[in-house]
Structure formats: structure tokens, C-alpha cells
Amino acid sequence: MPPPGPENWGAGWGSRAIAAAHSLGLSRARWSKALPVRIISRTLASYSRRRTALTLRAIAIQPKTGKPATGLFVALHGWGANSGDLSGLAPYLGAEDYHMVFPDAPFPHPYAPGGFMWYDLPAQYSFQSQPDFDRQPDLQTSRDRLLTWLQNLEQATDIPLSRTVLAGFSQGGAMTLDVGSRLPLAALMVMSGYLHAPLTAQVTAAENPLPPVLIVHGRQDAVVPLAAAHQVRDRLTELGADVEYHELDMGHEISMNALNLMQTFMQRVTSSLGQSE
């Protein structure tokens, strides 16, 4: 059976998600050598190298400053990619004093060797929020694992959730919205993402208000239609979130302009966290 939708999605999307790095003149060989990819502690290593019912495998990058981290940045890849898909963006986010962690989704992708997925997509999937989709077993499994993993990550790094920024591309963006609305995080970034199921007022309870959210989507996105971004923006606004929304002339990717917006948003978040101390 061919993969659903127009995407031949697989790990090849990594090269498109790091289009900004290429535009800066860094080939894959050069930027992979430039990144100090290390497990950030023995505690983190013990659960990031194993995939069990409560853990996720991850790439972790220590702060470039060599000083204790002031925050945590976690990015979730899309359908058919892996933890290396977004890790190449780490040097360009302007957050040199942050730990950065990039997990693999729990499930192997059926069409992309070395790729993973947070859940499978049915044929002719529309990327429009559907209430019954919330009950899909693999989505529930990924949600539970990701929630537990993020809470364990808080303990392993000594960085509270309130200083954690969660980002995601495509299906990772959908998971960012799902899980990020259930935790007291510093901010969310949704890149070319969508709502796989409605966000409800019960999930975004008063004791856990939604954090600021950056949404960036391409007008020429042939995979996740622009209407999906409108749905995300409108629902978050209805729930009272502080939404920063941008449409760009790009496809299903993270362009240089999108990366600039991510960097500016990170600066806004870190500045706000600094003022709250």
C-alpha cells in the first residue's frame, strides 16, 4: 500500500526541514561534524538510549556556553523522519545556554527505513481535527510516552517544565499541541503542523493555561494544507492563548525565514523567563 497523501514522507524530509542550514552554506557533512551531540547526563543516557514502554530514544546537545543550562528546548520530528531531522537547526536558534533534546517517535515508519512516526495516518487523511481520532491506540501510546518522558526529562536535567520550550514539525507539531496543552511549559512552536483532535477546555484547564504559541506554515504546503494552520490558530485564540501566527511563501519545510521567526520567538521567550525570575 502506498503512503497516504501526496508525501513520499520518510526520512528524506530531514533535508527539507533543515533547508535553512543549507542556505547558510553548511553541507550535511559539515554541520553534522560541527554539532557537539552528546548525552547530557548519565541519568538522561540511561533512558534516552533505550526504548521501553515509558521512554524515548533521543539526541541531546549540551549548551554551547559550557555553563549550566537556563532552559530546555525539545523538538519533535514529523511522520517518517527521526531525531536527526531537526537537530541540525540547534546552532541557529539563538539559545546557546539551552539544553536541546530531539527524541525519536516510538513507532517505526512502514515506508521509510530508519524513520519513525508518532502514529499512523489513514488513507486520504485530511489533517483536519477529528474527535474520534483522539482514540487511535498508537496516538494514545505516543501521548502517554511523551508526557512521561518530558516529566522524566525535567528530573534528569533539573530544568523545570516552566522553562521548557516544546516544538514540532508536521506530525510533531500535532503532538506538540496535544502534549503541550497538558503540561505547564514555557512555550510551544508549531511548524507546518495541525490538530489531529480538538483541543478542549477540559484539557487546557485553568490551573494549566496554554503557554505562548508560535505557528508558522507555508502557503504552498502541498502536504498539510494551510487550512489546517488556520484551524490551529483559531482554536488556540478561542482558548485564550497568546498566538503568534505567520504564513510564509514556502512548502512543507522550515525555510530560512521560518528559522528567523523561531529564533526571534526564542528570544522573546527567554527574555520573558528572565524577567519573571
Tell me about this structure.
With 277 residues, the chain is an alpha/beta fold. The protein has 9 helices and 9 strands. It has helices spanning 13-17, 19-23, 28-34, 42-48, 84-87, 137-157, 171-180, 226-238, 256-276, and strands spanning 58-61, 71-76, 98-103, 107-108, 116-117, 164-169, 187-191, 213-218, 243-248. The strands form 2 sheets. Strands 1-3-2-6-7-8-9 form a 7-stranded mixed sheet, sandwiched between helices. A two-stranded antiparallel sheet has the order 4-5. The longest helix has 21 residues, at 137-157. The protein is globular and about 50 Å long. The model is unreliable at 1-53 (pLDDT under 50).
Instruction: Tell the overall outline.
Output: globular
Largest sheet: 7 strands, mixed
- Briefly note the structural class of the backbone: alpha/beta
What topology, given as strand order, has the largest sheet?
1-3-2-6-7-8-9
Given the structure, what is the number of helices? 9
Mean pLDDT: 81
Low-confidence stretches: 1-53
Helix content: 25-40%
Q: How far do the termini sit from each other?
A: 53 Å
> What percent strand?
15-25%
The number of distinct β-strands equals 9
The arrangement of helices and strands along the chain is: HHHHEEHEEEHEHEEHEH
Work out the radius of gyration. Answer: 17 Å
